[in-house]
Amino acid sequence: MGRSMKVLDGRAAALHDQMKALNLRRKSRSYANNLHEIDSMSQLSVASTAAFEDTTECGDNTTLAIAIPEDYSDCDEELESPSSSASPESPRLAYQSPTGLCDEDLAFLQSSGLERCTPLKALGEGGYGTVDLVQVTLPSGRNIVAARKVIHSPLYNQARYERELRGLMLCADCPFVVDVYTSRVTAEGSFEFLLDYAPNGTLGDMLKAMEQRRRGKERLLMPVNRIQYYAACILQGLYFIHSRGQAHRDVKPGNVLMAANGRPQLADTDSMDAVTVTKRAGTTSYQAPELWRASLQGPGYTADRADMYAMGITLAEMTCHPAGGNGKLQAVKDDPAANLPEYVPADLKDLICGMLAPAPKRLTAEQALSHKFFEGLAWQHLVEGPLSAGFSVELKSAPSVEASMLPVLDP
Questions:
Q1: Residues 6+ apart with CB under 8 A from 342
Q2: Is the pLDDT of residue 216 over 70?
Q3: Element (H, E) at 118
Q4: Which family does the record assign (predicted)?
Q5: CA distance 15 to 28
């Protein structure tokens, strides 16, 4: 990014200044107060050398319709260095906070959400940590549920924590990236996040179920309008990230959560870094070839192009070959034009080929959103749910919690 990143001194004021420099709409001072334990020698811009693996726990699956309003009206100023994937004239998205919380409730979540939450049930457990469903009673009297993510792996260090939080905060107003309420570092050295709960699993979960229902038949994994919708939502999230001068660096179906209303949301931002950081990160099978051979990058290469390659693989999985398709996906990577099945519509095939093209010719997120495959999509209704895209899906809703069922907490 254009701005140089200051070394943190462990004080909330220093992080507050960092967040202001990132044009964050959310109350950066509240977030800064939750990060008082940050190492004084760490930098938000540092890239962790720790190995990355799939730590996606849970999410909700949905379908939305995409919209491209005129301006990021919630931002105070422009970043000095625009992303390589979006020109200064590009349309920019205007989003409201996806939480719908009043200022008092949001401030309470940020300052006390992790300390005052009540565990309801376990959602998942892995080598990195655990995810629980928790309830929080807000000052307004509203009861909400959220996902508490606790990471205790030695592979997840301070720099990686700062990078994940920074990515979540940077995307706080984008409905196509999972929302974070607050975070902290505990006295025991664990890293905790309180996240918006996505009850419908991941896109990867959904694709596996669809493959089982397809029973080996040579046909699209889902209807074209459904592919169009999911792809548009994920690309909208990538466009938002790239226009901020960042790359997600771990795009894959397992890192797309499906929200309560069916909206796909990018998650796991611990790999996110500036587009100028071009070293390998993320999941090997989704990494672009130029990350392994620098000679393939070309002049002015930036890591947002690697995101688009991973998105191309994800789109191929959504179309015909989930989880590799018994080796068929590798053939698509080698020559997508020749090896995509004949039942794939021409426009969709062209879009996938454009995302898997060599780095200098690969589509950007902005170019992909303008592709003819998306003609007729109701962009202005993307955030509203599956029905706005012309199809219905079975959705799980977050559990409701009655106040009478909750334990009494001391003030």
A1: none
A2: yes
A3: strand 118-125
A4: Belongs to the protein kinase superfamily. STE Ser/Thr protein kinase family. MAP kinase kinase subfamily.
A5: 8
Full-prediction pTM beyond 0.85?
Answer: no
Q: Tell me the one-letter amino acid at 85.
A: S
Among candidate residues 109, 85, 125, the one with its CA nearest the CA of residue 363: 85
User: Could you read off the pLDDT of 117-168 as tens digits, one per residue?
Assistant: 999 999 888 778 899 999 999 999 988 899 999 998 888 888 888 888 888 8
Per DSSP, the residues of 279-323 read S--S-GGG--GGGT-GGGS-TT--THHHHHHHHHHHHHHHHT-GG
Q: Quote the radius of gyration of the chain (alpha carbons, Å).
A: 21
The domains of the chain are located at 203-389
Q: 3-state DSSP call for residue 16?
A: helix
Contacts of 400 (CB under 8 A, 6+ apart): 143
Q: Is the pLDDT of residue 358 over 50?
A: yes
Give CATH superfamily name and number for 203-389.
Answer: Transferase(Phosphotransferase) domain 1 (1.10.510.10)
Q: What does the alpha-carbon distance between residue 390 and residue 232 come to, in Å, rounded to a whole number? A: 14
Burial class for 340, CB neighbours closer than 10 Å (0-12, 13-18, 19+): buried
H or E stretch covering 256: strand 256-258
Across the range 183-207, mean pLDDT stands at 90
pLDDT in tens, 271-298: 899 999 999 999 999 999 999 999 999 9
Measure the CA–CA gap between 356 and 317, rounded to whole angstroms.
13
10 Å CB burial of residue 88 (0-12, 13-18, 19+) is exposed
The packing angle between helices 346-355 and 224-243, to 10°, is 30
Q: Round to whole Å and give the CA distance between 191 and 194.
A: 10
Give the separation between CA 64 and CA 234, rounded to whole angstroms. Answer: 10
